[in-house]
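Rotation project, supervised by the postdoc (A.L.). Task for the rotation student: set up a whole-complex structure prediction and record inputs and outputs verbatim in this book. Inputs entered:
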Amino acid sequence: MADHQPENEPLVEVRDLKVYFPVLAGVLRRKVGEVKAVDKVSLDIMQGETLGLVGESGCGKTTAGRAILRLNDITDGTVKIKGKYIHKSSLKEIRKIRPTMQMIFQDPQESLNPRMTVSAIISEPLTEHQNLSKKEREERVFDLMDSVGLNRDFATRYPHEFSGGQRQRIGIARALALNPELIVCDEPIAALDVSIQAQVVNLLEDLQEERNLTYLFISHDLGMVRHIATRVAVMYLGQIVEIGKSESLYSSPLHPYTEALLSAVPEADPEIERTRKAIVLSGDVPSPANPPEGCNFCNRCPKAFDICHKVEPTLTEIEPGRFVSCHLYNG
Amino acid sequence: MSDVTTSITLQSAPSSQWRDIWDQFKTHRGALFGAIFFLFIMGAVFLGPFVWTIDPQYIDILSRDQGMSLAHPMGTDQLGRDTLARILVGGQTTVAVGITAMLLSLVLGTLVGVLAGFVKWMDGPLMRLTDLFLALPILPLLLVIILLFRDPLRAAFGPETGIFILIVFVIGITSWMQAARIVRGDVLTIKEREFVLAAKSIGTPSSRIILRHILPNVLSPIMVSATIGIANAIITESALSFLGLGFPSDFPTWGRLLFDATDYLQSFPERVLWPGVAISFTVLSVNYLGDGLRDALDPRIRGR
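Outputs recorded:
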């Protein structure tokens, strides 16, 4: 099944994914509620595409990405990767499929063990999953360093001796070591300088082309996501509010939240920038422990009407490949 | 390209890391002195008796209570036994007790600390156990343990080895709590760091996450507890000897010599001085040694 995949079946299929964190209180640490970090998220990622996952901080994008890789416990829902359900697999079974899915982390300083040399960091996945001789492993590490643009001389150095961009390259090399198919990029450029951001994103794109990688690209940088993503999913308060092809979502956002979000992106052209009108949302993001009744966005939505405060909208297909979760389009 | 690769293979030879560590260690002057002095003490204590051949147990009542002289460089005690010989032989026991007891308490403390920090459900029970041990009145506990186990151990291993095992065990199990608490705290912060998550995403099993990622990063506090542990063990051993619970009275250790000498503190103060100096300098040199090692093993400090 895993090897004979039909052409049109997505590499990753997530249905109604829920990640709730319990809120404990009192002397007995009893559960008094739960934070709905990810609430009924469904998405597909096709082989070879880049799905951008955007949203403001705290909306659950990172948690969703980690849950798909089973780095967080999943409360409910299903995750299917390469035709295999993994949401209930034991740690042992997960370990076997780890090579197909890897992750690139946000903070390259934090994600590299300061006590390991670069070659030890990059070869960790190799020692865990492949039986290579020392010589072969060394060769493989050098290959990986070449492909992410790191000088081979750096193999015996430690992470603190590198710049942020170089560290992120080490992280990318580690993620590539096992020839994965899916890479979850958890804000891989957020901690980097703008000039370095472009380098790293270009590297990711080149690698995708070379190795036919599939990315789940989590970011809050809308401009960068527009550049790299084939499709984009917008999250708000643990839910996906809109999902669609990158061009159509950026040119004609349907959900009021997407609209507001995109209106905040500055334009490079000063002529357009002058006339750009940012939609400023009032109020704050409600607590995910206590989301509003009805639509999650209703208390801040400029276009909200009666039903929004009572009934929760569902993600429905408006156009082919375009899903929106809003009452404006449901009837 | 080929010559580049060869130069790299030279560089990445496994010896280079130890070389770096040694290079860094050398730059820490105190550590270097500490290491040299510690080696000197070890040499003196373990090889010295072959050079200074006076029997530490030989009673020469005619030359008792002597001061420093060529025949007795550190003088003699109230029974005319040579102090230098007793210091050298006593050092063997003291250093051995100090190091083994420190190792035992360190292993215990690290084990408890890592388990409590890493395995969530063990945190509560293990930390309460630590609290329990901290709250135990040590002296009555020691009395009971020694009362219960001294004779069986003596029968099994002979009087000296038996009491050695007993003392190391007693010191070990009453001094691991500080290390456990420190290690637990550090493990709690380190296991939340992203490189541990990265290791999980690679599929590294927990045991290897602990060995590869957590332990090396809690090395600094472990080293510090180790150096303090040696000092602690030496001092506890002295106290036990003083209470008559340690080694037999004719069996010299530094602590024994120190407490024997306290009776003559007013008439012969130098008798307290010799074992006192030996204990303090050993402890000090070990402290510096540990300090330097800790720095040398941290790649972030190395090369600065």
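Student's summary: Chain A touches chain B at residues 66, 69, 71, 94-95, 98-99, 102-103, 105-107, 110-117, 119, 124-125, 128-129, 138, 142, 152-153, 155-156, 158, 160, 171, 174, 178 (CB under 8 Å).
Supervisor addendum: The radius of gyration of chain A is 21 Å.
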